[in-house]
Design goal:
By secondary structure, the protein is mainly β. The protein contains one helix and 15 strands, in the order βββββββαββββββββ. About 5% of the residues have low confidence.
Length: about 150
């Protein structure tokens, strides 16, 4: 059986048998064996689906239920609002966009420093910056909405 997963807004088909090599080692932390290598992925829920942090990279993901093809097709085309959230508590150190800016998929929006690491939050799909809810220097919590795209 094939699953369709939206990764940064782009549809990706995954063979369900590959999930046999995914083990949750603690809540929200997964060990993945793929191609003879081991990966660690941290998964957090957001209003728009899942945020997956692995190998220093952050992507948004959503598993599309094949029984809801119409709804999945609409999302694959990038419809609706998208909330960009903080994956963990930290401090906003730089805004990379302004309200009203047009953005492309993968474009950086805001940089959050957490645990002495800088994390750039990126747009999962093309859109327009509808709202910026933080300013440089703001402290944010895990799951706080930073930027809203339409």
């Amino acid at each position: 059986m094939k699953l369709q997963i939206l990764v940064d807004g782009a549809p990706v088909e995954v063979d369900a048998d590959l999930l046999n090599d995914v083990v949750e080692v603690e809540p929200g932390v997964y060990s993945i064996l793929y191609g003879g290598r081991s990966y660690e992925a941290r998964v957090t829920r957001s209003p728009d689906g899942l945020n997956v942090d692995t190998g220093g990279r952050r992507v948004s993901a959503e598993v599309v239920d094949p029984r809801e093809r119409n709804r999945g097709a609409k999302r694959a085309l990038g419809g609706g609002r998208q909330n960009i959230t903080s994956p963990m508590p930290g401090k906003v150190i730089r805004l990379l966009v302004s309200e009203g800016d047009a953005v492309e998929a993968g474009q950086g929006l805001v940089v959050v420093e957490a645990m002495k690491m800088q994390n750039e939050m990126k747009a999962a799909r093309p859109g327009k910056v509808a709202e910026i809810r933080v300013r440089d220097g703001d402290t944010v919590g895990a799951g706080d909405t930073l930027v809203v795209l339409t």
